């Protein structure tokens, strides 16, 4: 086991000046920063004993780290065996302090026990309900393929709750007589592995994407290009108790979905749209090009029924800058799109990453309470990124001059534990 020294950092109490109660708050300084860096953090999960599982997709390693002892040890290894992974991406909560590691290259999940040791793997295709299909009379019982295809263009989970139910968006692609049809919204699906039940909770509005189709028949390739990063898109997050919060981009209000499917919407959240101009476009183009380094491209090819997968981190060596976009909107949407734009904190707060003008420093979050109103705002300093939440902790990362990433733990005692 490798021993890592943890660098202690003094706590900094947050004090708001009189008359400035509406000013954004700041996080307390980290309790500690893990000394060994990561190349990229695809996901973290805090265990009940305080240790943290970290997935690094760039270096293809999964580690469990202990901030108290400063130790770090590996979980599993790269491969396709029963306790291995091809590409470690997201981490999900499962019952009994178990963790699920999403492995898109092997089209499966690795189960990690509460002792941070790999147990086995499973595929969602094998656990999904079957499509109803009536056979000819006298030729057996109804059969049918699975309702999801993890390795293809079907349901792909991106969140879980404490019961281990998985949540994800359905595919926007529907086969058509003249090629694939791209929908402007997708279902938000909840899958219960224990009962093999899949429920559609609501629909998520998507921005228009660029789609390229090549080949035909059983040898067809579909590539969905990224939409404009400022095109409005609904985003969502899941709380441990199974409640879902959807941030609606068009109206900027939060729709809450209870575990039984009951829906309610909070009030519209007031904001002043940022108008696009030459300076804002230069700023956003800079963000587009900078983000390429940490973007993972996963290609799935179906060649006459034979599925193959490959992955690439970043644009590749000597890649030219992106072509400037010409479809910028007149104003920025209220919040950023992407999986890291909306976070469900275990205490019931919803953190939404706001858009701001090019002169703004750091990253601003609206902290929204259970009624759907903004209780307060939090601003992270430049170079700091929100990485996740624990029971009473907040995790951020900082990046050094070599683009290495350091994980930091903050005590949440200086941020209210409950929304107002």
Q: What does this protein structure show overall?
A:
The chain has 420 residues and is mostly beta strands. The protein has a domain at 1-14 and 22-102 and 383-420. The chain has helices spanning 124-127, 278-291; strands at 2-3, 6-8, 32-34, 43-46, 52-56, 61-66, 71-74, 77-78, 84-85, 91-94, 98-103, 108-112, 118-122, 156-160, 166-169, 173-174, 181-182, 185-192, 197-205, 210-216, 219-225, 235-238, 244-248, 253-257, 263-265, 296-303, 306-313, 342-344, 350-353, 363-368, 374-380, 384-389, 393-399, 405-411. The chain is 4% helix and 40% strand.
SSE blueprint and pairings:
Elements: E1 2-3, E2 6-8, E3 32-34, E4 43-46, E5 52-56, E6 61-66, E7 71-74, E8 77-78, E9 84-85, E10 91-94, E11 98-103, E12 108-112, E13 118-122, H1 124-127, E14 156-160, E15 166-169, E16 173-174, E17 181-182, E18 185-192, E19 197-205, E20 210-216, E21 219-225, E22 235-238, E23 244-248, E24 253-257, E25 263-265, H2 278-291, E26 296-303, E27 306-313, E28 342-344, E29 350-353, E30 363-368, E31 374-380, E32 384-389, E33 393-399, E34 405-411
Parallel strand pairs: 8-9
Antiparallel strand pairs: 1-7, 2-3, 3-34, 4-5, 5-6, 6-7, 10-11, 11-12, 12-13, 14-15, 15-18, 16-17, 18-19, 20-21, 21-26, 22-23, 23-24, 24-25, 26-27, 28-29, 29-30, 30-31, 32-33, 33-34
Give a short overview.
This protein is mainly β. It has helices at 124-127, 278-291, and strands at residues 2-3, 6-8, 32-34, 43-46, 52-56, 61-66, 71-74, 77-78, 84-85, 91-94, 98-103, 108-112, 118-122, 156-160, 166-169, 173-174, 181-182, 185-192, 197-205, 210-216, 219-225, 235-238, 244-248, 253-257, 263-265, 296-303, 306-313, 342-344, 350-353, 363-368, 374-380, 384-389, 393-399, 405-411. A 5-stranded antiparallel beta sheet has the order 1-7-6-5-4, with no helix packed on it.
